[in-house]
Amino acid sequence: MKAWQFTGVDEPLRLVDLADPRPGPDEIVVDVKAAGLCHSDVSFVDGTITALLGSVPIVLGHETAGIVSAIGSDVDSFAIGDRVGIPATTEGPGTAVDGGFAEKVRVEERLVVRIPDAVSFEQAAPATDAARTAYRAVRTFGRVDEGMKVGVIGFGGLGSLGAQIARAFGAQVYVAEINEAVRPNIQDFGPAGMSADIRDFEDAKLDVIIDFAGFGTTTASAIDAVRHGGRVVQIGMARESATLSMQKIILKEITLVGASNGEKAECEAVLDLIAQGKIRSTITPIAFE
Fold it and tell me: Which tens digit of pLDDT belongs to each residue from 215-247?
């Protein structure tokens, strides 16, 4: 099979020929139909988080969707022809072992989820990582529910998905984004409010603010803007550290919580939202060769 292989820091991926993978007893082989390019892949290549890889050279690609083409002797949850996604994990394809930037990928059965028929492979691939991560921030740790007022800082890939997820659960969404080029996308989304600074919505008494940017100053602004007894979810990591007002956190009785990747069940929940037409990733197609 053909695959795009990472061979070293700051080196371009190489198109190589590799042997077709064969499943072990508890593994399946998936014919890849779509694989998302994540910012983490860039960070693997530029040296930022290369140490997390199981080995080098390695085939990257940890946002993968496709069709089961082979199963191991002990596999009982999936059959050849099933439509599946592979939620991103540090022990899975694209990080620990060869991933989805290839024609085929081998994966343990326990890591795989089914893709609903109503969800395209192109939408399923980013759902295995980006959308699942946004879901964890909004729903699992943000506890967003119907009738809430939710602030979203940053309307990039994760932020735009987070805003859609919050709305899917019945929340009013207020968006803060400094990049004017993104403003048309925000207007198309139709938030309850849009500004460059989340503090402009302090009077709205936001129940939850989710910082998808993570510049430190954005976290501090969220502390300023959230209502008394509100919740701030930190998921953006643009800066390693931030200076926050502990006095405001204490006196306003704010809950500040971090959110990271996600779990298999959260990926399944996101796929269900996509199937219902409630959320959608903005896709830029890239040809394999």
Answer: 999 999 999 999 999 999 999 988 888 999 999
What is the spatial distance between Cα 215 and Cα 174, in angstroms, rounded to a whole number?
Answer: 19
- Residue whose C-alpha is closest to residue 150's, from 165, 129, 131, 132: 165
- For 84, the token pair is 């599946």
* Residue closest to 80 by CA, chosen among 93, 66, 90, 62: 66
Q: Domain end: 125, 156, 182, which one?
A: 125
Residue among 278, 254, 252 at smallest CA distance from 134? 278
3-state secondary structure of 147: coil
CB atoms within 10 A of CB 233: 26
Question: Which residue intervals of 138-216 are DSSP H helices?
Answer: 157-168, 183-189
- Token reading at 276: 């219902």
- Is residue 289 over pLDDT 90? no
Q: CB-based contacts of 177: which residues, under 8 Å, 6+ apart?
A: 153, 154, 155, 159, 183, 186, 194, 196
**How far is the CA of 181 from the CAs of 92, 171, 237, in angstroms?**
35, 25, 21
User: Of 125, 155, 184, which residue constitutes the final position of a domain?
Assistant: 125
Query: Model-level pTM greater than 0.90?
Result: yes
Backbone angles phi, psi at 233, to 5 degrees: -110, 125
Chain position carrying tokens 């959110």: 259
What range defines the domain where residue 22 resides?
2-125
pLDDT in tens, 12-50: 999 999 999 999 999 999 999 999 999 889 999 999 899
| CA–CA dist 145, 123 (Å, integer) | 24
Q: Both 58 and 89 in a single domain?
A: yes
Please, what's the b/e burial string for 245-279 (b: 16 or more CB within 10 A of its CB; e: otherwise)? eeeeeeeeebebeebeebebebbbbbbebbbeeeb
Residue 274 lies in a domain: no
